Amino acid sequence: MSDTSFVRQEMLSEQPAPASSVGFLGWIKNNLFSTWFNSILTVIALGFVWYILAGVLPWTFLSVWNAGSLSECREIARQVWGESHGHACWAVINDRWIQLLFGFYPSHLYWRPILAFVLLGFALAPVLFPQSSRKLLILSGLYPFILPWLMWGGSIWSPIMALIGFVMGYLAIKNLSERIGQLGAIFSSIFAAFLWWLLIGPVFVDLLSANIPIALESVASRDFGGFVLALLIGIVAIVCSLPIGIILALGRQSDLIIVKAFSVAFIEFIRGVPLITLLFVASLLLNLFLPPGTEFDIILRVMIMVTLFSSAYMAEVIRGGLAALPKGQYEGADSLGLDYWQAQRLIIMPQALKVSIPGIVSTFIGLFKDTTLVSIIGLMDPLGLSQGIRANAEWNGIYWELFAFIALLFFVVCFSMSRYSMYLERKLQTDHR
Amino acid sequence: MSTLTDPRKESFSVSMLIYDTRYRSTTIQIFVLVLVLMVVFWLIRNTAQNLSDLGKPIEFGFLLEPSSYDINQRLLDYSSRDTHLRASLLGLLNTFVVAFLGCITALILGVLIGVARLSKNWLVARIMTVYVEMFRNVPVLLWIVLAMAIMIESLPTPKAFRGENATASMYFSDSVAITNRGIYIPEPLFSNSLGNLSFLGDSSVRFDISLDLMLIIAVLIAGFWTSSRINSWASKTQNETGIRPTVWYWRLSVVLLPLLVVLYYTGFHLGYPALKGFNFQGGTYLRNSLIALWLALSLYTAAFIAENVRAGILAISKGQSEAAASLGLRPGPTMNLVILPQALRVIIPPLISQFLNLTKNSSLAIAVGYMDITGTLGGITLNQTGRELEAILMMMLIYLSVSLTISALMNWYNNSVKLVER
Question: How far is B379 from chain A, CA to nearest CA, in Å?
């Protein structure tokens, strides 16, 4: 009996995994050919990728970089490769890239927008990356006054006086809140700032400009254009829409009925109409709403409308963040004896903003993309300029190259914003999962 | 006996309006109200002053004047002798057309792409990621203008279809012509037509309803209703006897047969586009601007919808699909019966706002010359009459009411499918 069965006494040594399930082959089998359906999909997808790349790569890289017009481009392509189609004519970008970037900004002043955007990098660094130097925060604070001065030029005294207005307001809050209470101090600081801006400041500006003329050459708004204009409108609207959005979101969440009603009405109205109608208001109506004879810059009007537009969306995003907080956080703040603003500043907002980072950044991206709409009301952003280039006799009939270049500009900015938001989300993640 | 004394009566002082929390909120609100009313009053006064300086009091009489411009893509009859009001109405209908078409295509594409992004097939998932990032990070206006440029520059002109050695040819046995002016497709025609019902006589908002179309719709509704009755009868039989009767041919025939009869008696046939003179005649004409706008808006919005769909599916916990697997469901039924019904609840609210965005983005039609409400009322009518304030105000109100209506409808739908919690 016992000799009919066989029981293995010693363990077999480990065998290597089958070659088809590890390494490169294994990866291919698992990810591309796991089932017959997946295999068909892979083959179709490979064919698709091949088709696209076979069209795009030769078009992009076997291309003409130096030519004066589209017909010349095609002539060169025909001479080199024997046929005229299927080769990009990057000569149009070579010819017009400066215009697409700067619009009609005077060419000897290109250093100013460039400097402005380099400084922007330094001003943003302490806000975006906590490991950078804290001293740069001073630059961040001063930047809102440097930017318009660099872009539009004019006397240095106007931005300085505007800055002093804010300083006055700050001093009023700091010194008076002990004596007449917080609310009173806020009102008096607003009063002091406006008193300075409207009555005292202009006198000083005139006086100082006459005696100590430090000024940059002025650039008119109609010369602004290209990607610089898109960036300018985008940055201003992004910076201004966040605080306005926070205030609107708090207003909508507030117990004060009238404040809440105004916030809801504003947000729903703005979100219910397309941006283009608001831009029409900026270009056609805003001057009607102001005292007769007020002339006020078209870019500034557009900035105001774009800011209002995105702050309504921002308010909804932040409201979502506020709603996501557990009620215990509010009650905890109350039980610590914090007042409303302290609770918002120290407990509610840091958490609500953290929750809503993805929404905030995608609003920023949407806003930056929407700056292209200004081409419809006649401002010369990259798309507006591209219409002009395409209507030009030399480049009539060109479109892929132009739009690919503009799309690339926007893609780089928007894509880096979305990657930054992912980085920030990961960094701020505090729950342990 | 002790005497009860009333608490000391507080005297009201002005400072309590600020320092007493009982009164402070009222003070702040009244202050805000006064401030806002002052600003509004200031704006209105400025506007009134400016308008009277310009000699343009607010009036809407311009809407009843002849528009004297043409609308090249339209649903209702219209000529340049019609009023601005009718032009605006046609513009509004055109907005609805492109928004409706765009929402449907964007939804279908978006769901497909969103599901494909989660595919186990690495290559397919990567391709879809590239698609989504490419469309999300480039302005929609650029896509619209690019689509229009491609239509105009790369498609053949109607002239190319002519003659012996034509360089372009029509598709689907000479029934569809794709030209740089637009696409011509066959149109439905009825040789024994029942005619039209005209409403509202001669006014600016008159419209016709085709009786043939109404009849077909009525027959279809009746057919589907009968079909669903047959289905429920089959289910009932299955519950009672355990054997499901084969009814699919019944269900198919109650829908198809009456429809075929109606189509035969009304003399249904297709009208094909044909090259006559400089252009195609006959058939339904979809202008290049409509196609470009439709294509660009749906491709762009599909990228966003794909992300919402993906997020919705990822939001369903893995335990759900594992439970479905342990019940013995295969991947297909798992998706249909377990994952999607739950994911839908997460997907619908952001989907609503994507549809609203698409509708609002359709106002970019003005960049390619499609005559939607922005192109008519906010474009040519505004420029011809010089009535900026009235035209823009009307346009805003129309968009506002459309947006609010869509979001109300969708919220109602959302509430009806929402999970009822304790």
Answer: 10
